[in-house]
C-alpha cells in the first residue's frame, strides 16, 4: 500500500517540502505558457529555463510555434518525454482537468501558480500519489534562502 501525502494547503508549506520538489524535478510542463513577454507566465518560464529546468510550454491557444526557442505543445499528452512537474498557469476551475492529465502522463508534482487553487484537484492528485503545491510561484521559491547553494547567488 502506497503512502499518500496529504498536505495542509491552508498552512505554509514546509521549506523542506518545497525545496525537495524544486531540487528533484527536472522537466516542467507549463500549462498556460504564453509568448507574450508582458505576461507573468513568460517571465516565470524565462527564469526557470535560465535556472536550468527543462521547460515545456503547453497552450492549445498559443499561435507562436515556440517560446524562447522551446516548442509549444497543444496538450500534456503531446509531450514526447517524461514530465516531472506540471505547472498550472490557468484559472482555478481549469486546474482539475489539467490535474487529470498530469496524472495520466505520470507527472510527480502538480504546482498551481499564485492565485490558482482547486482543492478537488489537490485531493485527486494526492490520491494518485502526486505532490501538490497550490497558490505558489516556483520563481519566487527559487529565491528563498534555502536555494542559495543551488543558484550560487546572493539573496
State the CATH superfamily name: NAD(P)-binding Rossmann-like Domain
The value of Rg in angstroms is 15 Å
Instruction: Please estimate the helix content.
Output: 25-40%
Order of helix and strand elements from N to C terminus:
HEHEEEEHEHEHH
Per the CATH scheme, the topology name is: Rossmann fold
**Could you name the ranges where pLDDT drops below 50 across 5 or more consecutive residues?**
148-155
Task: Tell me which CATH architecture applies here.
Answer: 3-Layer(aba) Sandwich
- The span between the termini is 42 Å
CATH structural class: Alpha Beta
Hey, roughly how much beta strand do the residues contain?
A: 15-25%
The chain-level mean pLDDT equals 89
Number of helices: 6
Question: Describe the biggest sheet?
Answer: 5 strands, parallel
Shape type: globular
Number of domains: 1
Q: Assign the structural class, choosing from mainly alpha, mainly beta, alpha/beta, alpha+beta, or little secondary structure.
A: alpha/beta
Total beta-strand segments:
7
Amino acid at each position: 500500500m502506497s503512502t499518500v501525502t496529504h498536505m495542509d494547503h491552508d498552512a505554509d508549506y514546509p521549506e523542506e517540502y518545497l525545496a525537495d520538489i524544486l531540487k528533484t524535478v527536472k522537466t516542467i510542463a507549463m500549462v498556460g505558457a504564453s509568448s507574450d513577454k508582458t505576461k507573468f507566465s513568460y517571465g516565470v518560464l524565462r527564469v526557470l529555463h535560465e535556472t536550468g529546468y527543462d521547460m515545456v510550454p503547453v497552450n492549445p491557444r498559443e499561435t507562436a510555434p515556440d517560446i524562447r526557442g522551446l516548442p509549444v505543445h497543444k496538450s500534456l499528452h503531446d509531450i514526447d518525454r517524461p514530465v516531472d512537474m506540471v505547472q498550472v498557469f490557468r484559472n482555478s476551475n481549469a486546474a482539475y482537468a489539467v490535474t487529470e492529465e498530469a496524472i495520466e502522463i505520470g507527472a510527480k508534482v502538480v504546482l498551481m501558480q499564485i492565485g490558482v487553487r482547486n482543492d478537488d484537484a489537490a485531493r485527486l492528485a494526492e490520491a494518485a500519489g502526486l505532490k501538490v503545491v497550490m497558490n505558489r510561484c516556483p520563481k519566487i521559491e527559487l529565491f528563498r534562502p534555502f536555494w542559495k547553494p543551488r543558484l550560487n547567488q546572493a539573496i
